[in-house]
Design goal:
Blueprint: H1 4-10, E1 19-22, H2 28-35, E2 42-46, H3 49-61, E3 68-72, E4 86-92, H4 94-102, E5 113-118, H5 122-131, E6 134-144, E7 147-156, H6 165-170, H7 179-199, H8 202-218
Parallel strand pairs: 1-2, 1-4, 2-3, 4-5
Antiparallel strand pairs: 5-7, 6-7
S-adenosylmethionine (SAM) binds next to strand 2, strand 4 and helix 4.
């Protein structure tokens, strides 16, 4: 049984597709999807030995070692091109996810479907995606245990770069459905703007004012 956040991430994985879960920790996500018959085969990857051992234990206890492989390594480096079709990267900072993508030459492939759940700095991830030929196909927000989370689905299509600071913060979020998230961002940005006004940073003041205008229009 997954918690509400991981269940929402799992719901975005396409049925019948081979999956990689990057930063898998206990491998709860791939074990859940494979044991329910949604995912035929998965690769659970983690940078660190401890979490990977946790993953191997969960996989063995579920009797799924023939359908879930555990691999140690940074980002997408434990994988080869073509091994999987869906890639989940959940529970890391948006800047870490962006650096994982930028380090992988084969990530820019029209057949891959990505599901990201950045814990922080989702704008850094959107900036990377929207300037590197990816399109954000969907976004969802949810509330769980007093926290707000965002899930971003993306695919690389060789799209022209989007140069728009507001788009990096707002993505495909909806003024009604994702209102709580947008109000939270508005609060954060307003505080940041006040700090920049005190510091007299005119470039940041212009940037943040533009984003806040875009945000107001969406609400
Ligand atoms: C907070 S846990 C998230 C676990 C799970 N994905 C989730 O969302 O509940 C983050 C995991 O990512 C791993 N991690 C951090 N940076 C990584 C990287 N560059 N490549 C692979 N795994 C990484 C950590 O070792 C840790 O196990």
């Amino acid at each position: 049984m997954l918690d509400k956040r991981l269940q929402a991430v799992a719901d975005k994985v396409r049925p019948g597709k081979r999956l990689a879960d990057i930063g898998t920790d206990h491998a709860y996500l791939p074990v859940n999807l494979v044991s329910r018959g949604i995912t035929p085969f998965a690769i659970a990857c983690d940078l660190r030995e401890g979490p990977l051992q946790n993953a191997c234990r969960t996989v063995a206890e579920a009797g799924l070692a023939d359908r879930i492989q555990c691999r140690l390594g940074n980002g997408l480096s434990p994988l080869s091109a073509g091994e999987v079709e869906d890639i989940v990267i959940a529970g890391m900072g948006g800047e870490t996810v962006a650096s994982i993508l930028s380090a992988c030459l084969w990530a820019k492939n029209k057949h891959l479907h990505f599901v990201f759940q950045p814990m922080t700095r989702s704008e850094d991830l959107r900036r990377y995606l929207l300037t590197e030929g990816y399109v954000i196909t969907a976004e969802t927000t949810l509330q769980h245990s007093g926290h707000l989370y965002v899930i971003i689905e993306a695919e690389w299509t060789d799209a022209p770069p989007v140069i728009d600071e507001a788009a990096y913060v707002l993505g495909r979020l909806d003024g009604t459905r994702d209102r709580e998230w947008l109000l939270w961002q508005k609060d954060l940005l307003t505080k940041r703007l006040k700090g920049m006004q005190t510091a007299g940073n005119t470039e940041e003041i212009t940037r943040l004012t533009g984003i806040l205008q875009g945000l107001e229009e969406r609400l």
